[in-house]
Amino acid sequence: MDTNYLVALGANLPSQYGSPRETLCAALERLEQLGFSMVAISRFWSTPAVPAGAGPDFVNACCKMRCNLQPRDVLAQLHVLEEEFGRVREGRWSARVIDVDLIASEERVLPDRDAFLRWQNLPQDAQQREAPSELILPHPRLQDRAFVLIPLAEIAPLWPHPVTGQSVMEMLAALPEAEKSSISPL
After folding, report:
1. Number of helices (H), then strands (E), in the chain
2. Listed residue (6, 1, 37, 14) closest to 104, CA to CA
3. Where would a tag sit more exposed on the chain, N or C end, judged by fewer CB atoms within 10 A?
4. Residue 92 pLDDT
5. Residue 141 phi/psi, 5° resolution?
6. Cβ-contact 37, 67 below 8 angstroms
7. Is residue 165 a contact partner of residue 157, using CB atoms and an 8 Å limit?
8. What domains lie within the chain, and their CATH numbers?
9. How far apart are CA 61 and CA 68, in angstroms?
């Protein structure tokens, strides 16, 4: 049975495919070649690097795709795509040729609610040092990231966060205007 997945894509360095925008276009095509059926793709958005000054502006987008794989297998395929595109994991929040994050798998919470809440409530300084060794869904920082929520609102505005119950639009409305105003469509 096919499952819907929400995926965020970003890039702020050129790759063998060209500019960050051209890289995201190539990545979306590659996802289809890997057997993912695209349901919806957001516009591309220009977003400042986080933290400020960490590199050139990013190009970000989100897609909703379907497949019959389990979430861990989807994540493995996304990591293969990143490697094919030249992604080197040099550190958290660094400049990169491609970043493809699995945001959600319908209303699944993985591996369980307690693990999700531990990662969601991890202090900012610990986020820079620690990374989960297992898949956490939905993405524990989803509600904090305008660069994900803005494009996601175009393709899945009513998707309910399975832990908080908030829709994408409600999470986006809760963010400070200053974070949202720095993001613009391309």
Report:
1. 7, 6
2. 6
3. N
4. 55
5. -105, 5
6. yes
7. no
8. 3-185 (3.30.70.560)
9. 23
Both tokens of 26, joined, read 């190539």
Q: Does the global pTM surpass 0.90?
A: yes
User: What DSSP string describes 56-115?
Assistant: SPEEEEEEEEEESS-HHHHHHHHHHHHHHTT----STT---S-EEEEEEETT--BS-HHH
Residue with tokens 């829709």, as numbered in its chain: 167
57: its two tokens: 């502006």
Model pLDDT for residues 136-161, shown as the tens digit of each residue = 999 999 999 999 999 999 999 999 99
Mean pLDDT of 76-93: 83
Higher pLDDT, 91 or 17: 17
Residues 151-176 have a mean pLDDT of 98
> What does the block give as tokens for 84?
């094919």
Distance between CA atoms of residues 12 and 55, nearest Å: 7
Place of tokens 């202090």: 123
Cβ neighbours of 158 (radius 10 Å):
9
Whole-angstrom Cα distance, residue 37 to residue 66? 5
